């Protein structure tokens, strides 16, 4: 029984759905959000082990999610997804103490391996 | 005739005039000198004649025999003096007068020499001598007087001529100066005006006729400069466009990134979950992949639409009707943004000759921009009315939003220019501009930062279009 809580925030519906489908098979508890505001509200109610967030989103963006999560729940891991075009921004995000980042198109296997690594290091 | 030639001609005329005046004055002075010289000689002769006659009087009245010798001596002396100065005298009074003077003197001399010592014959000769002496003196005095009066006449005439020439000279100098200031200054003003219009970005050529003088040369130079500037500007626009393609490509790559990522993730999940998926779920994955490829196709199609503008289908349309339809489309956006809308449509406007859909695109663009410039509570007004010229109808879209900074205004119709940061493509207004221009219309903008913006769109009515077609 895995039972780790994972949150996915991405304004593309399919991204969250696919990650959820694959990770649930491995026993993760996955919740998906299309934008960051309700996701941050949910984080106040529930502790998550990993937050996977897109960097560029309308309204609250990935950087803000990162800072909020790290200040309110430092042990929660944050993985940033970013379009290849904004790789420079991703490196900037690394400096902001993101746990890992993935460029799009996302490799789900790599993401899975990364989550496992982060949780076991945890 | 070139200006420089005109000036040179005027100067040559002046110089010739001065030379003529100088020559005239010189020859007059010479003449006066000759006459004065003669007057001197004549004075001497007169004095000599006077003495001769005094001696003659002594001889006849007091019978002073020695006086006869003196008379002969003086007559001889006078003749000698007359002959010595023959050239000068001839020049002054002419050969005829000289000869007469000489003849008179010789006659007198002969009369004297024939005078006997006494007797009735002496009486007779005495009369003859007196007569000749009188005539001689009289003639010589008359000529002297005449010459003096001639000198006076020459001087007064010279004065008159010099004054007239001076007047002509002054008038021509004033004329040349006036011509220069009028022509040259006018030319310079014309050139300055054209240069100003070019500096304002209006690269139009100077209309013929171009005069065949220095102004013409300057105007031709300006024309070629204007052409060159136009070429350069086109090159700059072209290179700007190329630079913009880079930006556009980045935007397109980003647009395409999301559906590509979705397809990739679904394909991965499909493989990962294959065994646990039902047939329907598998079909669902495939359907979604197909949907995402369609999304990519849509983006590519839109991009092609942008790069290849469709041919306008022009027909007579009521602009107010087009506006009403357009307002329905943007109504929701206006309501959501909490912006007040005022519409003033002038009734019974002449029909405009447009492609309705393209103009609708322009209007949507202008209204979207207006809404985006506004904060909640701001006003947008849409007005229609007759254009600035009879052949046009106008639409004004005004807002009380944040306005456009003055230094952005010259660029707002440029492709890919945007003030909205990442959320704008910079294509809306440039596409609108292209559409309006294709319609033979105009679009202009006035804006003040913090006060608002007004776009004025003018579209042609049918008559103008038909005329244009007939002409072309």
Q: What is the 3D shape of chain B?
A: rod-shaped
Helix content of chain B: over 70%
Instruction: Give the total of beta strands of chain A.
Output: 5
What value does the average pLDDT of chain A take? Answer: 88
Largest sheet report of chain A: 5 strands, parallel
- Outline of chain A: globular
Poorly predicted runs of 5 or more residues of chain B: 464-472
Low-confidence stretches of chain A: none
- Report the structural category of chain B: alpha+beta
Strand percent estimate of chain A = 15-25%
| Distance linking N and C termini of chain A | 17 Å
Report the helical percentage of chain A. 40-55%
**Major β-sheet annotation of chain B:** 5 strands, mixed
* Mean pLDDT score of chain B: 82
Largest interface: A-B, 17 and 18 residues
What is the H/E order of chain B?
HHHHHHHEHEEHEEHEEH
What does the secondary structure layout of this molecule look like, with pairings?
The complex is a heterodimer of chains A (122) and B (472).
Chain A: E1 5-9, H1 13-25, E2 29-33, H2 36-45, E3 50-54, H3 62-72, E4 77-82, H4 87-95, E5 100-103, H5 108-121
Parallel strand pairs in A: 1-2, 1-3, 3-4, 4-5
Helix pairs in contact in A: 2-3
Chain B: H1 3-62, H2 65-84, H3 86-93, H4 95-113, H5 120-199, H6 214-273, H7 279-307, E1 315-317, H8 319-336, E2 340-344, E3 352-354, H9 356-373, E4 379-386, E5 392-399, H10 428-438, E6 442-448, E7 452-460, H11 462-471
Parallel strand pairs in B: 2-4
Antiparallel strand pairs in B: 1-3, 4-5, 5-7, 6-7
Descriptive notes:
Chain A has helices at 13-25, 36-45, 62-72, 87-95, 108-121, and strands at residues 5-9, 29-33, 50-54, 77-82, 100-103. Chain A has 122 residues and is an alpha/beta fold. Chain A has a five-stranded parallel sheet with strand order 2-1-3-4-5, with helices on both faces. The longest helix of chain A is centred in the C-terminal third of the chain and has 14 residues, at 108-121. Chain A starts with a strand and ends with a helix. Helix content of chain B is 71%, strand content 9%. Chain B has helices at residues 3-62, 65-84, 86-93, 95-113, 120-199, 214-273, 279-307, 319-336, 356-373, 428-438, 462-471, and strands spanning 315-317, 340-344, 352-354, 379-386, 392-399, 442-448, 452-460. In chain B, strands 2-4-5-7-6 form a five-stranded mixed sheet. A two-stranded antiparallel ribbon of chain B has the order 1-3. Chain B is rod-shaped and about 190 Å long. The chains are: A alpha/beta (122), B alpha+beta (472). Chain A binds chain B through residues 12, 14-15, 18-19, 21-22, 25, 83-85, 104-109, and chain B through 250, 253-254, 257-258, 260-262, 264-266, 268-269, 272-273, 276, 288, 292.
């Amino acid at each position: 029984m895995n039972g780790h809580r994972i949150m996915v925030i991405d304004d593309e519906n399919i991204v969250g759905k696919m990650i959820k489908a694959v990770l649930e098979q491995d026993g993760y508890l996955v919740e998906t959000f299309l934008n960051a505001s309700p996701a941050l509200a949910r984080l106040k109610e529930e502790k998550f082990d990993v937050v996977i967030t897109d960097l560029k989103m309308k309204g609250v963006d990935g950087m803000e999610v990162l800072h909020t999560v790290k200040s309110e729940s430092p042990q929660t891991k944050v993985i940033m997804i970013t379009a290849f075009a904004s790789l420079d921004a991703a490196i900037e995000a690394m400096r902001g103490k993101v746990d890992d980042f993935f460029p799009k198109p996302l490799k789900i296997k790599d993401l899975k391996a990364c989550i496992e690594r982060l949780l076991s290091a945890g | 005739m070139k200006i420089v030639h005109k000036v040179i001609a005027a100067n040559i005329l002046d110089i010739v005039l001065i030379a003529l005046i100088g020559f005239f004055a010189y020859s007059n002075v010479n003449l006066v000198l000759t006459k004065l010289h003669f007057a001197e000689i004549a004075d001497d002769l007169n004095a000599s004649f006077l003495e001769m006659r005094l001696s003659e009087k002594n001889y006849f009245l007091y019978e002073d025999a020695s006086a006869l010798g003196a008379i002969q001596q003086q007559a001889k002396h006078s003749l000698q003096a007359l002959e010595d100065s023959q050239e000068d005298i001839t020049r002054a009074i002419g050969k005829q007068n000289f000869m007469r003077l000489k003849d008179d003197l010789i006659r007198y001399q002969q009369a004297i020499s024939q005078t006997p010592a006494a007797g009735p014959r002496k009486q007779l000769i005495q009369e003859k001598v007196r007569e000749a002496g009188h005539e001689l003196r009289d003639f010589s005095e008359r000529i002297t007087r005449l010459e003096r009066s001639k000198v006076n006449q020459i001087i007064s005439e010279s004065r008159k001529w010099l004054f007239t020439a001076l007047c002509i000279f002054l008038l021509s100098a004033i004329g040349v100066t006036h011509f220069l200031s009028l022509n040259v200054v006018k030319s310079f003003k014309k050139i300055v005006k054209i240069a100003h219009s070019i500096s304002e970005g209006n690269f139009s050529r100077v209309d013929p006729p171009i005069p065949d003088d220095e102004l013409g040369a300057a105007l031709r130079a300006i024309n070629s400069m204007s052409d060159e500037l136009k070429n350069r500007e086109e090159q700059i626009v072209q290179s700007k466009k190329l630079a913009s393609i880079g930006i556009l490509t980045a935007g397109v790559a980003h647009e395409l990134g999301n559906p590509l990522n979705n397809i990739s993730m679904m394909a991965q999940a499909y493989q990962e979950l294959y065994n646990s998926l039902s047939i329907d779920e598998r079909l669902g994955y495939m359907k979604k992949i197909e949907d995402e490829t369609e999304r990519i196709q849509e983006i590519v199609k839109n991009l092609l639409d942008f790069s290849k503008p469709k041919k306008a289908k022009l027909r007579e349309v009521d602009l107010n009707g087009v506006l009403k339809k357009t307002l329905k489309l943007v109504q929701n956006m206006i309501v959501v943004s909490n912006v007040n809308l005022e519409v003033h449509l002038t009734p019974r406007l002449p029909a405009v000759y447009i492609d309705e859909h393209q103009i609708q695109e322009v209007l949507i663009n202008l209204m979207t921009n207006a809404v985006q410039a506004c904060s909640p509570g701001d006003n947008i007004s849409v007005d229609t009315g007759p254009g600035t010229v009879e052949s046009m109808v106008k639409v004004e879209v005004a807002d009380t939003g944040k306005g456009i900074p003055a230094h952005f205004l010259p660029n707002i119709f440029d492709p890919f220019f945007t003030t909205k940061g990442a959320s704008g493509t910079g294509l809306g207004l440039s596409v609108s501009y292209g559409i309006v221009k294709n319609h033979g219309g105009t679009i202009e903008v006035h804006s003040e930062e913090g006060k608002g913006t007004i776009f004025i769109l003018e579209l042609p009515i049918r008559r103008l279009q038909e005329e244009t077609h007939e002409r072309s």
